[in-house]
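This part of the workshop introduces the protein records we will be handling. The question running through the whole workshop is how a given chain folds. To make this concrete, we reproduce a full record directly below:
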Amino acid sequence: MRLVALLLIPLFAVGLTVTACGGGERLTVEQYADWCAGGVASAASLIDPERVTWGELGELASSSAAELSSVNPPRELSEFHRVSLKTLDFVADVAGEQEAEEFANPLAFGLEAIAIATQLRRAVEGLAPETRARLGEAGCL
């Protein structure tokens, strides 16, 4: 479970940290990366990768997705943003189908997780090198 949780932390961080920007004005890549950087530590503090329950994981994924959906990303991050939302929604859906107090098990994500991970990887690979580097520096990838 540790690997799955660590992979999801940057996505949760994006969702948790962009609420201040609202859904109006389109963000710049720098703003998107800055908010993400500020939230990585916060998201990591909310999840103990060794002991995260389905309830905790589902709650964090749902709230992060709701907050992230209110963001107007920069054009060059539109696909990354869309697939990030899809990933968070998927995690929330799978977590919602499990017993809330049980520890999360990555096997529950099934084969659909491979397809979603592939979409996310392609969205990241489709970013301009400087955009990908900036998001990587911020801990968003």
Observations:
- The chain has one domain: 2-138.
- Residues 2-138 form one domain.
